[in-house]
Amino acid sequence: MFTEKYNKKYTSDEVKSFIGKPLFEEKSVYSEDPSYPKISIIIPSFNQAQFLEKTILSVLNQNYPNLELIIIDGGSTDGSVEIIKKYERYLNYWISEKDNGQAAAITKGCKMSKGDLIAWQNSDDLYLPNALFGVAQIFKKNSKVDLIFGNNYLIDSDDNIIKKQRYIPFSLEHLLYCGWNLSSQATFWNRNIMNKVGYLKNLHVLFDFDWFIRLGKASKNIEFKADFWGCYRIHEESKFSLVSKKSRWPLFVNILKKHGVEIKEDIAWDKQFRVKKLKIKLRWFFHHLMQGEVDYVLKALLRRRSFLSKYDIRLGNEKIETLSHSK
């Protein structure tokens, strides 16, 4: 398991500068340098013209020399297609047609991808500078790695950083009982593990939760890099904001039951598995203290009435990312 002290941190102005205009060199985008692993990025999109260009630029501005960029659009009518056409000469493939939702779009992109490593980036989210080079560095040292992930920021609709999301080395138990300990905005997987696990389940929401549980179960070699690689955008039109708590709960229950968690539907989630959750949260707490992140831990404590509620999956609480990053 790879981990190190937290490195580069970004300001809101640096994020805005990185995705504000094309910064890439065409020779890098067109290159297929075999000394770097091929990384396939799939952008599923539907009527996200407000943010789509920034997402595309966050990929192209990596200047990564062995990139495959695929956009699967669900038949947008808001100007998204015009944005895609603006950059189509840099894309390996794109299509705009009615589909069966985000998970189906990602699966379509995965099936046509050729990369050694694969990821998807939602069309309202971002990568941060040098994210792909950071992933490639790990893969070069360990080509058998199943899953690679880093940290990310929460940002608003104007690209302002709301808060940091720092993770710790992956634990399947953490994901099952205490919510997200990785995010699609900063996670990449090996083609070999995808071939073993299969593709995403075609769920409207929580497909990413189910997917990462399946990946976590199958993966024997997971690397965590404590750098900031992505940004998860919170805005009123995101899918999660539009889906009610009532409709999410049975989906959440079904996924956990399918993966062996004996959840009780008639008892609030934060009142179940309290001892197990306490152990997981203490692991989170001590990991960050050992990394010297005292300020981060203190801020986390101050943001909550108590540290013990930090990662409880409350379907209506402010930590929307604890349940799903599905857009």
By DSSP (H or I, 4+ residues per run), the number of helices equals: 13
Q: What fold name goes in the CATH topology slot?
A: Spore Coat Polysaccharide Biosynthesis Protein SpsA, Chain A
Order of helices and strands: HHEHEHEHEEHEEHEHHEHHHH
CATH class: Alpha Beta
Low-confidence stretches: 1-6, 306-324
Distance between the termini: 30 Å
Explain what you see.
With 327 residues, the chain is α/β, with parallel strands linked by helices. It has a single domain, classed as Spore Coat Polysaccharide Biosynthesis Protein SpsA, Chain A (Alpha-Beta Complex), CATH 3.90.550.10. Helix content is 38%, strand content 17%. The chain is built from 13 helices and nine strands. It has helices spanning 12-18, 26-30, 49-60, 80-86, 102-112, 131-141, 172-178, 191-197, 207-218, 239-242, 245-258, 274-290, 294-303; strands at residues 39-45, 67-73, 93-96, 117-120, 126-127, 147-155, 161-165, 187-190, 222-233. Strands 1, 2, 3, 4, 5, 6, 7, 8 and 9 form a nine-stranded mixed beta sheet that branches. α3 (49-60) packs parallel to α4 (80-86) and α7 (172-178) crosses α12 (274-290). The longest helix has 17 residues, at 274-290. It is globular, with a radius of gyration of 19 Å. The chain starts with 11 loop residues before the first helix and ends in a 24-residue tail after the last helix.
Comma- or semicolon-separated keywords:
13 helices, single chain, alpha/beta, 327 residues, 9-stranded mixed beta sheet, globular, Spore Coat Polysaccharide Biosynthesis Protein SpsA, Chain A
